[in-house]
Amino acid sequence: MSLFKARDWWASVLGEGEEFDQGCLCVGDVDNSGTGYDKIIVGSFMGMLRIFSPHPAKPDELTEADTQLLEVQMPDPIIQVELGKFVSCSESLHLAVLHPRKLSVYAVSGTAGNVEHGDQYQLRLVYEHNLQRTACNMTYGPFGGVTGHHFICIQSMDGMLMFFEQESYAFGRFLPGFLLPGPLSYCIRTDSFITVSSTRQVECYRYETLAVATDADTKQDSNQQSKSSGKRLTADWTLVLGEEALDICVPNTSPAMSSIFVLGERNLFCLKDNGQIRFMKKLEFNPSCFLPYASVSEGSTNVLMCNHNNMLLVYQDVTLKWAAQLSCVPVAVRVANFLELKGLVVTLSSDGHLQCSYMGTDPSFFTAPKVDAREVNYDEIDAEMKMLQRVIREATKTQDILPRAETEEELRLTAVVSSSLDEVSCAIIPEMNGMPVPSVTVKVKIKSRAVVQNPKMTVCVQPPLAVTQDQFVLDSMGSGSELVVSFSAFLNGLYPPADMSGDIAVSYSSATGIPRVSQCKFSLPLRLVCYPSSAIKNAKYKITVDTNKPPVNLNEVFPDFSEKSDNNDSSALGFQLITGSKVIVLASKTSQRYRIQSESFEDIWLVAKELVQRFDQHFASLGVKDFRNSFTGPIPLPEYFETVDHHFELRVNAQKYQDLLSERAVQFRAIQRRLLTRFKDKTPGPLQNLDTLMEGTYRQVNLVICSS
């Protein structure tokens, strides 16, 4: 903890329940006033855009009334805001606002007021681009060496870099080996884009390489991005970090040299523009955001860094120069110049605490309270010292070199799944595909062998499985106390789960205040997602499981399915998935093989896994220790790829139907308004019924298409 606190110059709390991230803050002369002073632009995930011109409040005035220049509610969440020269016919600064499926560029203008209310500011849309892919972040700059203007590059969630030359879409490129999006920045000196991939390595791509690479969507029109031509896309250089990156920044401090700063989870990296490491700083805290900026010392760079301990740190290269305490944990930090003070630090927290501060030299003094003075009894102190030394000697004799781990946890968890389904189902969706959706009760017994403070239990199951309650706040427990917590699990989606297991974790603090976690697992019954069914002999997809033991009676292995099955044949069992197809298990009468077959390839997995697990339990109960099962056939990759292709085709068709439905809905609402306007005063009753019927039909069709 620092002795000094950051001095508050101006602060504001933005909205209630809004969320912000590192891309939601930028500073600059957004209204092109020419005064040299900055404004603060903030966007939120709730779609609220705000512009501030801060100044410290005088004793007789309010701050919020005249510091907030503009507040606009956007229809979509705001991912990132940036200021740049984004309009082709103007060299003024414009505001770029990135939404998940849209990029909008606005002009902000102010009009001098003639009354006491002050100036008036307006937000005017210059142009916008509808995105074909969901956006993650963006960067901008004079791509390709253009002068006087800025282009924009947007990274999508599926790894595509989309380039926009102001009002026009230029091209798009997919990053090779992409899995998850990372931070993105542009280096002006080398005309390159820097990112960190999911393989935890820094990758650099030149703009020229991107422009001529394969997998490039050539622009046919403003809404069509589909064809490809050129060479294969490869990185100009890569560097392995070994950790995830929180942010990348390339400060434009010198035309002769560029430094690439990468903020990792535990380290700060400074790289040359050719990928070589200039220096590296190991951090002893969890950083939240950073900002490199020019230093007064030639050849060095200053870095503002915030961490999750509410600290604002100033580094000159690897040397810590100053530390100050903040009132919150920032997710974004900038440096701005205002009317009365230059070089202010602007910070924004995830819950909307916007603060302008500077690092003053007034320390936060704290003096410990005085204790009551008393006379010292030296004889008692001497006796206590001898006793403590004796205890230390005894402990030293018996102590191992390494401390022994605790043999028993302070909190023991035991999860018991009911052997029968609930009589009254707790499922949110009572019926799927004409079959009732059951639920099963899980009881968790919590037993403590020591004092446990503030225990909190979390339950996690594989979707679409769900539970009636997944978070429990429990009372503190004493030594030897027990507690039982119950919840029900059920199916809550129109597809089968990948796994029937669940996890339970209880976080708590020991008597000494040390945070600890106890965990346990549980397995839900297969009856939760399927019903007994009659067996059929033929199916499209088949998998054979080989064993080293004679075939067993399937009714003994699956007693919960054989009792209600109409088929008395012990060599065949049927499983009807609630949200899938029928799966059949056939036991060979002449060999040690079992066949699992179904009309749906993906539905085989759940029954196959259950079959292997029950075989292991069955033979273990008989005392057989050398039981083995295997799959000797070819890996069914064609069937697997067919399933994947079908999934993506379904998504594409669903999107087409959704677009068609939206178009028809607009036409439908227009006709409906004409009818209601023409016959509003003549036949209100029937037309109101017609309006309700048509609205309900639209919602039903939309629900069917979205669920498919």
Report on this model:
- It contains 8 helices and 46 strands.
- It is α+β, with helices and mostly antiparallel strands and 708 residues long.
- Strands 10-11-12-13-17-18 form a 6-stranded antiparallel sheet, with no helix packed on it.
- Helix 7 runs antiparallel to helix 8.
- The C terminus is likely disordered.
Short structural description:
The protein is α+β, with helices and mostly antiparallel strands.
Topology readout:
Elements: E1 7-13, E2 25-28, E3 39-43, E4 48-52, H1 64-67, E5 68-73, E6 80-84, E7 94-99, E8 102-111, E9 120-130, E10 135-141, E11 151-156, E12 160-165, E13 168-174, E14 184-187, E15 192-196, E16 201-206, H2 207-211, E17 216-221, E18 224-227, E19 237-240, E20 245-249, E21 259-264, E22 267-272, E23 277-282, E24 287-294, E25 301-307, E26 311-316, E27 319-325, E28 330-336, E29 344-349, E30 353-358, H3 378-398, E31 411-417, E32 431-432, E33 435-436, E34 439-448, E35 453-461, E36 465-467, E37 471-473, E38 482-491, E39 501-509, E40 515-523, E41 530-533, E42 541-547, H4 554-557, H5 559-562, E43 572-577, E44 582-587, E45 593-598, H6 604-621, E46 629-630, H7 637-678, H8 684-707
Organism: Danio rerio (Zebrafish)
Protein name: Protein PTHB1 isoform X8
Helical amount: 10-25%
Query: Radius of gyration over alpha carbons?
Result: 33 Å
Principal-axis shape equals: globular
Largest sheet: spatial strand order: 10-11-12-13-17-18
Class from helix and strand fractions: alpha+beta
The major beta sheet can be summarized as: 6 strands, antiparallel
What is the count of helical runs?
8
Q: What is the percentage of strand-forming residues?
A: 35-45%
Protein name: Protein PTHB1 isoform X8
